[in-house]
Amino acid sequence: MGRIIIFTGKGGVGKTSVAAAHARKAALMGKETLIVSADMAHNLSDLFEVPIGKEITKIEERLYGLEIDPNYEMEHDFTDLLTSIKKMIPDMELDDGDGNLSGFEMFPGMEELFSLLKIQELYESNWYEVIIVDCAPTGETLSLLKFPELFSWYVEKFFPIGKVAMKVLRPVGKKFYKIELPDTKAMNDMEKLYVKLTGLQELFKNKDIASIRLVAIPEKMVVEETKRNYMYLNLYNYNVDGLFINRILPKDIDNTFFDEWILLQEKYINELKNIFGNIPIGFIKWYDIDINGMQAIDRLVLDVFNDDNLFEIKNIIPNEVYEKNTEGYLLSVNLPCLSKEEIEIYETGKEIILRIGNFKRCIPLPGIFRNYEVSSAKLEESILRIQFVEQKEEN
Ligand SMILES: Nc1ncnc2c1ncn2[C@@H]1O[C@H](COP(=O)(O)OP(=O)(O)OP(=O)(O)O)[C@@H](O)[C@H]1O
Ligand SMILES: [Mg+2]
């Protein structure tokens, strides 16, 4: 079974450098490795000092690179999907004549979707044992990761799978939504899209295959953002199995200017250690020169990534756990660094909706919860506990 590791963190903290060192290490261990940049501001080429583009390029023995271009993917590899999406929204001008897909801004996350679909396709090709994904800074990565769930929810709600439902909906659809509902052929495409999206979620949330590693530097703003990021990744039930703290000042600098900085860094390193608990943490020193070219990557590998277990899944914390108890059922969700004022909880009968800021997570409930309702919800020591009790019979 292949492995996917996604790197994320605040802008400029060293995501690309850490991702590249992982990729190089995997190749040196004899694994067929692909490093993929899903950041629109690609810089793998600069780092490896080899031209890497929208087609897979060989960098070294067993090491390949790709800088995903979502427009190119839409036009080349996913034309069927694109056609079915275009059919759904006929009024939308999607082509600006230069092959760019204008109008897609209406569909936030569409670019991210095609990047994810490409990674899924590469994984399913079985060519690579390790796929390393270098992501854009936090915010964009979070929208990337929440997207499959959001989109399949949207597809399910607006285009219920099943031909009968489609026929009934058609006139209503035309009149009120100004969206032409897909004909039978297109609907088959919709079904395909739905199945693909479900597969996408399953792949990225499969804790035996995919994990997320965070990169941070010991500075206040970065630590705060790392904590939020970690909480949201838990909210969406992704497996975080590594943290890399970069740009750590050496303690033996003979210059009093850095004394205070070294103390501050220590404080933030300790704060991160406390939060990340059992998750393995890698420490990377601040080098006296930037990280450029294979020699520099190799030095980083030698200094920090010399562990042959680097690609094992390190930490599987079950984020969503159901237990039976005396009152009924208890659902526990791991949500580190969250205060209870920030969370809103809704129940719909079929799912529990957790809303934190702009993020919404729908947790589908197992069938046995049909006759149960929420009686209480508590946030204690990073764990949200939602108690379900059996509904009373109404007379
Ligand atoms: N430990 C380090 N010592 C010295 N220079 C470093 C270190 N880590 C990263 N750099 C340099 O800092 C710059 C940013 O690193 P990198 O590109 O890996 O960050 P990033 O998080 O991917 O940035 P972006 O958010 O822009 O994608 C690069 O020039 C890199 O060479
Ligand atoms: Mg980068």
UniProtKB/TrEMBL annotation:
Keyword set includes Transcription regulation: no
Name of the molecule in the record: arsenite-transporting ATPase
Its biological purpose: Anion-transporting ATPase. Catalyzes the extrusion of arsenite.
Key words of the record: Arsenical resistance, ATP-binding, Nucleotide-binding, Translocase
Species whose genome carries this gene: Mobilisporobacter senegalensis
Alphabetized InterPro entries for the sequence: ArsA/GET3_ATPase-like (IPR025723), ArsA_HSP20-like (IPR040612), ATPase_ArsA/GET3 (IPR016300), HSP20-like_chaperone (IPR008978), P-loop_NTPase (IPR027417)
Keyword Nucleotide-binding part of the UniProt annotation: yes
ArsA/GET3 Anion-transporting ATPase-like domain mapped to chain residues: 3-300
